[in-house]
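Let's practice the habit of predicting before peeking. Look at the sequence and jot down your guess about where helices and strands might fall. Then scroll down.
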Amino acid sequence: MAKKMAAGRRMPKGDRLLLLLSILMICGSALALGYVSLMNWSPLAEVVSGESGAGSGGNHTVSIGEDIKTPSTQQQHTVNFLVTGIDYTRNDTSAGTVRGQLTDVIMVVQLDLDNNNVDVLQIPRDTWVGTNVSSTGKINAIYGRSGLEGLAQAIYDQLSIPLDHYVNINMDGFINVVDAVGGVEIDVQESFTLEGVTFRPGLQTLDGLKAEKFVRERYHRSGGDIGRINAQRQFLAALFKKFKGISMSEVTRLVPILMQEVTTDLRVGTVLELAPEVLALNTDNISFYTLPGEGATASNGQSVWTIHKEVAAGMLNEHFRPYSDPVPADKLRMQELRNSTDYYDNNDSTITDLLGGGD
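Done guessing? Here is the structure:
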């Protein structure tokens, strides 16, 4: 479980309130943290107790290395965030299952400050990075070996994407936030059962536990892991819509709930006037992209997601390098194991698309 901020390092109430708004928006639309960071770029070092297998094994300061951050010449134009959702090794009674120490949600969120665009790269949890990087060769196992710093470093090394800040929320936090806002309305498309929770097609309001199952299911959903990514988009868009209707008094009520579950390296400003601007962000300008590729079997027998390097290079250059030189496919270090179909290569959508053309 994500640890609380160390004693003596708690944010002032105003800071915590605005960070909460930012994290809610990240969870709901993966977009707002960049706006908040503009008010105060001073880093907040987060001391986290070592989990079993989590990098150093003791208390350590989680921070992203300066050498993988956006170059100083571009920092006034763009900022990138590593956004993760992590399951921890324990008996999770709220979620009804035993958790592993894996990053089930991995996103790179880029804010284009000049054009007010937000581009979100969803990286499938089974993406192949090699057994020299993680125990299984999959990207979701990096955290268990090297922590968030190691995950950020691997994304930078293999995809040449700089990362400036991180935000992490565990699944307890996800469940608690959804319950705190009174659930989220989703039009469920497929029937499936996960860990004793059954879904039927139709418009319905999901509480926290059901929402957690909805965004995690992949085995009985069309498209497998990509089907899950698409379902996560659908849920995030619906959660964004929900948050647009939340009053500041409701945001205040949510502060103690979410701050128990979130870790980040950001210290935010105290000016709350920014909140309405964030909530009013045009949904046409918030876009989701999936790392292009397909399913494959790796040399160690693992079922993995393998990158299509040429298509991925083009997508990253167009949407995630607006102010830097393009990086050709042969310079990406992520290994391509197979390239037999382009079925998933153009899997992108805006929040407007996901909401059916309206806010």
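How did you do? Residues 178 and 208 are 5 Å apart (CA to CA).
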